[in-house]
Amino acid sequence: MKKYISIAIIATSLLLTGCQSAYYGAMEKVGYHKRDIMVDRVEDAKESQEDAQKQFSSALEEMQALLNHDGGDLEGAYNKAKDEYESAQDAADDVTKRIDKVEDVAEALFDEWQSEIGEISKASLRRNSEAKLRETKRSYNQLVKSMRRAESKMPPVLTAMKDNMLYLKHNLNAQAIGAIKGEFTSLQTDISGLIKEMNKSIDESNKFIASLEGN
């Protein structure tokens, strides 16, 4: 369970109604610093990617079930596939929102860190802090690059799913299903590639969280 979760809930209204700086300021007053928020938001982004992996896999399974449909309730099978596609879209949107939040707190954290370095009078301590800041920024940039790369693979998959769903909506019969079976292999490949990229991003998230908590 995340630290200070009750504090985060209390401050939600500030996040919704005020600017981010006011939110961070209020959280810091109760002992919940930007570094803590950073860890939580990277964790949230990681979890959203894990959820998206499951959702895209589930959507693929339902589409496969629809394409392999052999009699019975064809419309019911279509509706299941459509529901899973829409859930995959929602999961993709959540991934983007979570990454955006990571970037927001990272900017605030690094700006504060850089500013506070200038307040350190002892040169050796200042150099050490500057080195840690550079190292953390490098690790962070690698993390976000990995997250965005995985994120970029979702829209093409969703577009292909949407095309198939719309085509079947207007032509829900065995002939129409046969017509899109050729697209399915490509979709399988794309989703497999998406999941692999997400796994890389999830690994980077774990490394980054460990590096922050270790500092």
Automatic annotation (TrEMBL):
Signal sequence, renumbered to the chain: 1-22
Keywords: Coiled coil, Signal
Organism: Shewanella sediminis (strain HAW-EB3)
Lineage: Bacteria, Pseudomonadati, Pseudomonadota, Gammaproteobacteria, Alteromonadales
Pfam families for the chain: DUF2959 (PF11172)
InterPro entries referenced in this protein's UniProt entry, alphabetically: DUF2959 (IPR021342), S2_sf_CoV (IPR043473)
Organism superkingdom: Bacteria
Coiled coil (residue ranges): 42-153
Keyword Cell division part of the UniProt annotation: no
Name listed for the protein in its UniProt record: DUF2959 domain-containing protein
